[in-house]
């Protein structure tokens, strides 16, 4: 009786969604997997002994970890550049995992859905949205 109302409880625990479409649901689950670190990127699969190779499929010289895929892979430079420029329009100039996954206190609450949409657009352009 003295606890939070249903509205307060929902606001506290609701994961920001991209949209309710099939693509939006796919984006939401991909963002959740990235936040949890449970992806199909080669480095993670190798750590779980589900893959004998941990290298980036594009570079072939660097382990395919989240940071490499999301920020550093030279084969995805045009997608990284496009994402950075779109985020800079929201006055987001620091690019790191908590910001890109809208899990940072450094992002204004009203910008989180936009950041997640941009992250999903990046994943879609790399062809990885349905695979992560």
Q: What features would you describe in this structure?
A:
By secondary structure, the protein is mainly α. Helix content is 51%, strand content 0%. α2 crosses α7 (112-126). The longest helix is centred in the first third of the chain and has 15 residues, at 22-36. The protein starts with 5 loop residues before the first helix and ends in a 6-residue tail after the last helix. This is Reverse transcriptase zinc-binding domain-containing protein. It comes from Portunus trituberculatus (Swimming crab).
List keywords for this structure.
132 residues; mainly alpha; globular
Chain-wise SSE layout:
Layout: H1 6-13, H2 22-36, H3 42-47, H4 66-72, H5 77-88, H6 97-100, H7 112-126
Indicate the structural class. Answer: mainly alpha
Strand content: under 5%
Terminal CA distance reads 42 Å
> How do the SSEs run, as a string of H and E?
HHHHHHH
Low-confidence stretches: 1-5, 7-19
Overall body shape: globular
Largest beta-sheet details: none
Task: Determine the number of helices (DSSP H or I, runs of at least 4 residues).
Answer: 7
DSSP, total strands = 0
Radius of gyration: 16 Å
Please, how many domains?
1
Average the pLDDT over all residues and give the rounded result: 84
- The amount of helix comes to 40-55%
Organism: Portunus trituberculatus
Protein name: Reverse transcriptase zinc-binding domain-containing protein
